[in-house]
Amino acid sequence: MIYQPQLPTILALIMDKKNSLHSTRLQSLDVLRGFTMFWIIGGDALIHSLAKVTDIKAIKWLSLQLTHVEWNGFHFLDLIFPLFMFVSGVAIPYSLGNSLKKGISKEKILFKVSKRVLLLILFGIIYNNEIYFDFANLRYASVLGQIGVAYFIAALVYLYANLKGQILAVIIILFGFWGLMMLFPVPGFGAGILSHEGNFSGYMDRLFLPGKMYREHYDPQGLLLMISAATITLMGTTTGSLLKNDNYSMLRKTGIMVVLGFLLIGLSLVWNIWYPINKEIWSSSFNVLTIGLSLLFVSGFYYVIDIKGFSKWSFPFLLIGLNPITIYMAHRMVDFRYTANFLLAGTMQIFESYAEVILVLGILGLEILLLYFLYKRKIFLKV
After folding, report:
1. Would you say the C-alpha torsion 200, 202, 206, 209 has a positive or negative sign?
2. Within 10 A of 72 (CB to CB), how many other CB atoms are there?
């Protein structure tokens, strides 16, 4: 089953009211993108609220997994952001590849990509700071900015390098970043110190990152870390090329992704012995781990939805995945909690012990209703 959203016309880089459901894309990609965003816009809060009122061990375990590891280590929530980046890379051969087939020059494509990246950086700054004009004290590094920079790097490499070149770029960044973090000394600490204060990436942020940082000594979306994380989007791009390759059957593609996914997970666990898995500094071992896990998720969704055709269950995730930036920004800017509380106050009073669960379900319901309205009107925020 091939899913077909159309690339946005310029009206732009922002609102596409065209028939976005008719271009060459895999439905599983939009569903998986929606799956990742679900945990950001309220899925995690739902599990946390359930964990407070139930003694079910699986719920409590999942609640723990939906917290970030403070430094070294890994929880499921640490995968969500990298998985979103990986999926954005998978889409590149479909979107940019189709543009190339239409005869659009690489320069025009890259110019369009650049505008999208600038919009993501701008939205990220707004998301972090609201609308303020104290430019010296804004936080400029952001989740959306990192997605944009990684997308730009992956698009650039995809346009001007073949598959071997793309894989070589991933290897160079992985080992280059490892070398920077382990070999370059930080004044007062020395080389290879992977602490909050002593890591080389944080030192670069303190020297060159404008505005304020998210952490005291570094920013988890800092200057070097955006480049390190780009390996995830780049590997997503190579995966997209595999999925578009008509020389392999769909089952064989699934098998390749599964085998490679487990191999990379194993490699990351070995690398972890010398270079800890750490999302806060996007260590190379962390990137390899999340690439491996992302391959397993992509293969699973691809098999269930695109090969077997079991897709009805995924419609809520599809709604989210078609408008991920819309709901990400709306979740920050719109007080869904106030409206849900207004509508469900009586129900929450009746089921008092489950009041928070009901409230979170109400918030998620309102967000899904908004996305369904946009879907029916064929309005999609595209950057």
Report:
1. positive
2. 16
Domain spans of the chain, in order of start = 2-381
Specify the residue for token string 């609308």: 131
Tokens of 230: 């780009």
Cα-flanking dihedrals φ and ψ of residue 115, to 5°?
Answer: -65, -40
Write down the pTM of the prediction: 0.91
Distance CA 282, CA 132 (A): 29
In whole angstroms, what is the distance from residue 322 CA to residue 13 CA?
14
pLDDT tens across the length of the chain (383 residues):
334 443 333 333 333 444 334 345 689 999 999 999 999 999 999 999 999 999 899 999 999 999 999 999 999 999 999 999 999 999 999 999 999 999 999 999 999 999 999 999 999 999 999 888 888 889 999 999 999 999 999 999 999 999 999 999 999 999 999 999 999 999 999 999 999 999 999 999 999 999 999 999 999 999 999 999 999 999 999 999 999 999 999 999 999 999 999 999 999 999 999 999 999 999 999 999 999 999 999 999 999 999 999 999 999 999 999 999 999 999 999 999 999 999 999 999 999 999 999 999 999 999 999 999 999 999 887 76
| C-alpha to C-alpha distance for 134 and 136, rounded to whole angstroms | 6
Neighbouring residues of 207: CB distance < 8 A, sequence distance ≥ 6? none
Closest to 347 in 3D by CA, of 334, 338, 336, 356: 356
Provide the 10 A C-beta neighbour count for residue 252: 12
| Half-sphere exposure at residue 287, Cβ-oriented, CA atoms within 13 angstroms | 26
Q: How far apart are CA 65 and CA 46, in angstroms?
A: 13
* Separation between Cα atoms, residue 66 and residue 360, nearest integer Å: 15
